[in-house]
Amino acid sequence: MQNSEELQSLALDNLAHGCAEETQKFFHQNPNDPRYCFEIFRRAYAEQLNDALVYVYSIYEPVLTRRARRHPLFSRSCQDDAFFARIALANFYQATHGHQFIEKFSELAAVLKYLYACLHSAIVQDVRANYALEEAELDQMPAPTLQDDASELWQHILQILHEPQYQHLAYQRFVLEMKPAEILRAAPEQWENEREITVALQLIRRRLRNDALLREMASFEK
Amino acid sequence: MDTNSCAFPPPLTDDQLSQVLDEAAEGEILEHLEGCSLCRARLEQLRRFDRALSGKLRRFDCPTAQTLANYSLSLLEPAEAEEIAQHLTYCVRCQQELTMLEAFTNINAATPAAPRSVIYPPRNVWQATVTSTTGNLALRGLDDKLTQAAHAQSATVYLETQKVTQGVILTGQVVDTAVDWRDAIIEIRQAGEIRAVQTLDEFCEFQFEAVDTSPVNLYITAANGIVLAVEGLSLIN
What we know:
The complex is a heterodimer. By secondary structure, chain A is an all-alpha fold.
């Protein structure tokens, strides 16, 4: 085992060899020294050495590819595992290169946690987008709107639904797309049963459908 | 069958149709719908209205998954972290994603791979088609130079290879009217191995010195989550 100064002066090839070996030990749940890999990350991101970046990609792209397949939402995504690994590594680079790396990380565990968080985010974002596109295709409507337009629409709905309870319920139903059973589970103190929620939702829908602007937006004939 | 009148009068009420939209309707209502085209048509109209609303409002105020991850790892500025904390008090979807994130980023945890239930067509990978633009350079004695262009969606990658003593130098530039490729990460592979990883410069250019002439695969990942793939690129004529 070498101290940090020795590791910082170690040739990149030797460092990469050490990192690959220690990574294997980690995956076989054997005692391992994380400092080789951390030093490669430090050179790749803090010092922005392209040769070190090649080793990060060579060692961690396969790790991320395998891990992507184990994400609970991977089965609902539309991209392949290698795609998510690339996006995760690219997002990791954008968020951590230069001085940001040293500010954020002092050990390998934190680096990997963030790398896995980038992988998770890439998958979740893809699934969010898929869901929206799938719905739009069903109704042959344009794909999701800009956030500003949605905020404006939501403000309009808030004006139609004055009661905070209805506003909250409409948010749960139309923004978060929760079903009555889920709404009841989330706030059992607020509702007696599912039926009470469906009645309230029907009143909300009626009020919304009576609004000319919303009817026009949804091409709804009264 | 008469589609202008209810098959089993009286027609379903708006309340009953609303229950169907909420997936909370019971057997009798569903049976009615199965046999009554008028009520089915009314339901479809109401469903369309719901979808129009949800389509526009779906999670409009949720932070991106990456921001949520940064929040979870305490990497946000205090003001933004406060905003996310407030959002999390009422958004169950973000709460669920956060729980999932915490389990997934546990570096010691091992979870089995889940089989895919739905197959969507890949959307964010732009597979480029390569065309040679060298023309008659060889006839002019410039056969050590090869120029090519790779096209995908709105992007074109202009590529030039030049033989040098130690191998081949590949230079490229991404030109695009829709996507900003500056600072994109380019991964250069040969014979299945990663040979170089770089960022595109401010002119979206890169350069790679290849020690052998085996075909090259380029994967360029933009900040907006698009991967431009140029595969099987020749380095020699």
